Amino acid sequence: MRYIGIDVSKATFVVAYSSDKGGEIRTFNNTTTGIKQFIGALPKDSSIHCVMEATGNYSAMLLYLLNVAGIAVSMENPLKIKNFARAMLSTVKTDKIDARLIALYGEKMNPQPFKIQGEAILRLRQNGKPGKLAMIAVANKLVRQAFAVVTHDKEYVDGFVSNRP
Predict the structure, then answer these.
(1) How far apart are CA 155 and CA 132, in angstroms?
(2) Phi, psi torsion values for 88, nearest 5 degrees
(3) Can you spell out the DSSP letters for 29-55?
(4) Exposed e or buried b for every residue in 69-86, given b needs 16+ CB within 10 A?
(5) Between 57-68 and 32-41, two packed helices, what is the crossing angle to 10 degrees?
(6) Alpha-carbon span 150 to 36, nearest angstrom
(7) How far is CA 7 from its chain centroid?
(8) CA distances from 82 to 5, 11, 59, 89, 160 (A)
(9) Residue 105: left if φ>0, alpha if ψ -120 to 50, beta else—which one?
């Protein structure tokens, strides 16, 4: 298994294709186009495993598109990687060094691949709702849909505003 470390920021993400100091490092725009360029440059076999820190909204699209492309990807708690860096006596902090360190973390710790959740939950998370709130929001929406069908024999329409007083 070859681990690829990814350091994600708002505008870009840095990819370390190896933890070796001489290994290739590239930077891509954190846009749909940039992510597709990155995915297109990856080998087509299943020998790779991408590892990145959980960075909230910044990593959501990358995580989603890697999963859709069928590429193994792990999203790790940043605290785990920070503690790993301390154990490796790494004190310098740049995006390139972080990406290389994340690749090394993958090689040494063999993290489990991230299981993508339902598209609705991902969309809610991208809109800023944490896991539990996203689940509650999805459950509430399902309840409203069921209530609309049972009481009015009509399909629930999201965003509908009643004209009742």
Answers:
(1) 26
(2) -85, 5
(3) ESSHHHHHHHHHHS-SSS-EEEEEE--
(4) eebbbbbbeeeebeebbe
(5) 40
(6) 44
(7) 11
(8) 14, 22, 18, 11, 46
(9) alpha
Distance of alpha carbon 3 from alpha carbon 120, whole angstroms:
29
pLDDT digits (tens, 9 = 90+) for 91-150: 888 999 999 999 999 999 999 998 766 665 566 566 666 656 666 766 676 666 666 666
Whole-angstrom distance, CA of residue 115 vs CA of residue 122: 12
Instruction: Give the tens place of pLDDT for each residue, 35-56.
Output: 999 999 998 878 899 999 988 7
Query: Mean of the per-residue pLDDT values for the chain?
Result: 82
pTM of the model: 0.71
Contacting residues for 99 by C-beta, under 8 A, at least 6 apart: 5, 6, 7, 14, 15, 16, 25
